[in-house]
Each structure stands twice: as structure tokens, then as C-alpha cells.
Amino acid sequence: MDTITQFCPAKINLFLAITGRRDDGFHELVSVVAPLAWGDTLEVDPAADGKFTLDCDDPAVPRGEDNLILQAARAFATASGWRGGARFTLTKRVPMGAGLGGGSSDAVGALRALNELAGAPLEREALAALAARVGSDCPLFLYDGPVVMRGRGERIDPLSDAGVARLRDRSLLVFKPAFGIGTVWSYQQLAASAPGSYLPSADAEERLAIWQADASASAEALGFNSLERPAFAKFVALPVMLAKLQREHGLNARMSGSGSACFAWLSPEADAEAIRSTIRAGWGDTAMVQMTTVRTKSAANPH
Ligand SMILES: C[C@](O)(CO)[C@H](O)COP(=O)(O)OP(=O)(O)OC[C@H]1O[C@@H](n2ccc(N)nc2=O)[C@H](O)[C@@H]1O
Ligand SMILES: Nc1ncnc2c1ncn2[C@@H]1O[C@H](COP(=O)(O)OP(=O)(O)OP(=O)(O)O)[C@@H](O)[C@H]1O
């Protein structure tokens, strides 16, 4: 069989309300998440020896059993009973510790490819349940467009057509300082200042419903992220940069997920080069700056 190539998009959380903590330690959330046109590439080749192995062009990516690709592969083998092997080759573009879901997306790319290699033993629902076990951010990547994510990340609905239309074809700038932020740390900080750090779920749903119903609402108007407060308190380079981008370029930039990556919607008149220079002047040349768009697909035809 030929190589299967999976595009593994990055994601941004346009809206991320953490609404409370569950007994199992995970948090409940309401989030609007969009996959991007930019991401990693995962090539998957069948391996006759029945083993799973991983190569990656980025030496910083863990290559052992803690890699989410290999974890997803083991989980797939257990759930499907498939006894084949695969050689994974990952071209890594999405930085780690960014809140861009890179590892989760790679894991879902692996699940999709293995299911194809194995002759589709798992239906969509079984694949979604498996993805949820691999990581909270995984199920959203089984959709190819913007979604509303609830629960701890396992409940996914496509975003309404009206909502998707506000994101389609808009230029998006994603940027990240050299440092990353750990997801576990972010949630711990939130829990430490509970309950004030949580947005009640009724409030979160109301904000989302108002945005969906308002035909004149922009993508920017949805911007909210509960995890900004703990991140900004410790990593002051983030709010300083966002304030500078607001002042100098009129941008309403936000952090994605648990950070440290941030994003801003650009108007057609925006001077992307000047914005890039502002970011590099403040965060240095090791800062990542990436222009992209959202990957959209109609809610009426999500699959
Ligand atoms: C911040 C987000 O990126 C927003 O989309 C996600 O909620 C993070 O999802 P993720 O990185 O896939 O997270 P997981 O690998 O499932 O969990 C890592 C850790 O994050 C915390 N965690 C994660 C998701 C969630 N809904 N509640 C949590 O409290 C838990 O401490 C967990 O042990
Ligand atoms: N395929 C993978 N690519 C990147 N990191 C991986 C992968 N598999 C496991 N990891 C581990 O997961 C950690 C988090 O990486 P990831 O790219 O998912 O970042 P994140 O921005 O924290 O994600 P999220 O948006 O889900 O919070 C890394 O520090 C790394 O140790």
C-alpha cells in the first residue's frame, strides 16, 4: 500500500470559557475552536514487522512512547484488534507548548491513517471515543472545520454556518514567543483561584448564543479566554505585546488555549510586515510569526 499523508492542522480557541472543575480533576469548558490551514504533515507507511516507529525532523519532539502519535497507535491497535505496524514520519511546524493543539492533531492524523490502513474497522463514533481517550483536544480534529467544543473536549458540534461565514477567508496572524506554557500548569493556576476564575456555563452559553444570533458580529467580537488571566500574570511579555499591538496597529489580539501562542485577525488593509516587525522587536527573532486562515467547511455538510 502507498504512503498515506495526513495534514495535521493547528487550532486556535476563538472563545474559551472554563466553567468549572469535575470530580476527575478535568475542567468543563465551552469553546469555539477552529482548525487552521497551517499545520504538521504526517506520513504513514505500513510496516511488515508489526511495529510502530516514529521519525521527526524536529529533535525537540519526544520520539518515544510519550509521543501522542505512538500513544494513539497503541490505543488504535487495542480498540480495533488490528495487528499491523506503521512507520510514522512527522514534519513538525506547529510549536509545542503553544496552545495550538499540535500534538493532539498529530495523534488524530495517526488515528485516521491507521483506520484507513486497517480497512476502516472503526466507525466515526468509535474513532471519536478513542480520540477523546488520547487527549481532550483530540476529538475536535476529527472535524474539518470550526466547532463548538464542550465537556472536557469530547462533545463536539459543528459551528453554525453563520458563525463559519464570519471566519471564512479572513487573514489570521498566529504568533508565539520563544517560551511555551504547560497546559497542566495553566489549569492548576485556574483551580487555585476557583471559583472566581471560572465563567458560569450559563454565562458562557449566553455569550456564545448572542454572538451566533448577531448577524453583524465579527470574529473579533467572540474573543474570550479564561486561561489568559493566569498566563498574563506570570508571563508579562504576553499582555505587554498585546497592548502594543492594540496601540500601534489597532489589533484585538488574544491568546489561544493555554498559550503561549496568540492570534489576531487582520483586515485587508493591515500592514502585516509592520506587525511582524513589532512582534520581532518585542519578542526577538526567535518569535514565531505565521500568516494563515481558518479551515472552513459548511456546518450543513461537516463530514
Ligand atoms: C487548553 C486546551 O487546549 C483548550 O482547547 C485544552 O483544554 C487542553 O487539552 P489537552 O492539551 O488535550 O489536554 P489533556 O492532554 O487531555 O490534559 C492535560 C491536562 O490538562 C488539564 N485539563 C485538560 C483539559 C480539560 N478540559 N481540563 C483539564 O483540567 C488536566 O490537568 C490534564 O491532566
Ligand atoms: N506529536 C507530538 N508533537 C508535539 N508534542 C508532543 C507530541 N506528542 C507528545 N508531545 C508532548 O506534548 C507536549 C504538548 O505539546 P502540544 O504540541 O500538544 O502543545 P500544546 O500547545 O500544549 O497543546 P494544547 O493546545 O493541546 O494545549 C509537548 O511538550 C510534548 O512533550
UniProtKB/TrEMBL annotation:
Q: Which family does it belong to?
A: Belongs to the GHMP kinase family. IspE subfamily.
Q: What task does this protein carry out?
A: Catalyzes the phosphorylation of the position 2 hydroxy group of 4-diphosphocytidyl-2C-methyl-D-erythritol.
Domain GHMP kinase N-terminal span(s) in chain numbering: 67-145
Which biological process terms from the Gene Ontology are attached to this UniProt entry? isopentenyl diphosphate biosynthetic process, methylerythritol 4-phosphate pathway; terpenoid biosynthetic process
* Broad class of enzyme this protein falls into: transferase
Q: Where does ATP bind?
A: P95, M96, G97, A98, G99, L100, G101, G102, G103, S104, S105
| Pfam families in UniProt | GHMP_kinases_C, GHMP_kinases_N
Tell me if Transferase is a UniProt keyword of this record.
Answer: yes
Entry keywords, A to Z: ATP-binding, Isoprene biosynthesis, Kinase, Nucleotide-binding, Transferase
GO MF annotation, one? ATP binding
What NCBIfam families would the database entry show? ispE
- PANTHER family, sorted: 4-DIPHOSPHOCYTIDYL-2-C-METHYL-D-ERYTHRITOL KINASE, CHLOROPLASTIC
Reaction equations catalysed: 4-CDP-2-C-methyl-D-erythritol + ATP = 4-CDP-2-C-methyl-D-erythritol 2-phosphate + ADP + H(+)
Pathway of action: Isoprenoid biosynthesis; isopentenyl diphosphate biosynthesis via DXP pathway; isopentenyl diphosphate from 1-deoxy-D-xylulose 5-phosphate: step 3/6
Family annotation (SUPFAM superfamilies): GHMP Kinase, C-terminal domain (SSF55060), Ribosomal protein S5 domain 2-like (SSF54211)
- EC code: 2.7.1.148
Q: Which residues form the active site?
A: K11, D137
The record's section on InterPro entries has:
GHMP_kinase_C_dom, GHMP_kinase_C_sf, GHMP_kinase_N_dom, IspE, Ribosomal_Su5_D2-typ_SF, Ribsml_uS5_D2-typ_fold_subgr
Q: What is the lineage of its organism?
A: Bacteria, Pseudomonadati, Verrucomicrobiota, Opitutia, Opitutales
| The keyword Magnesium belongs to this UniProt entry's keyword annotation | no
**Which residues are in the GHMP kinase C-terminal domain?**
220-282
What protein name applies here? Answer: 4-diphosphocytidyl-2-C-methyl-D-erythritol kinase
Q: Which residues cross the membrane?
A: none
